[in-house]
Design a protein that fits this description.
- This protein has four helices and no strands.
- It is mainly alpha-helical.
- The longest helix is centred in the C-terminal third of the chain and has 16 residues.
- 63% of the residues lie in helices and 0% in strands.
């Protein structure tokens, strides 16, 4: 992995993010959080997992599409 991903991987492991299957988008993408802030990215992923629901998943998809097309 890239050098800047090691911190992100470590933070995601601590928060149990790797215990769930990844989706096509997520809360971090909607909020514009990237690998420049690995701890915040991992915390946001954890928050998304805790609040996961079918409604939220489709909300993330539609918000991502909206942001891409505007």
């Amino acid at each position: 992995c890239l050098f800047n991903q090691k911190k992100l991987i470590s933070e995601r492991k601590k928060r149990g993010v790797f215990k769930v299957r990844p989706g096509i988008t997520g809360l971090s993408q909607i909020l514009g959080i990237n690998m420049e802030t690995p701890t915040l990215l991992a915390k946001t992923d954890q928050k998304m997992i805790r609040k996961s629901s079918l409604y939220n998943y489709f909300y993330y998809i539609f918000r991502t599409i909206f942001q891409i097309t505007r």
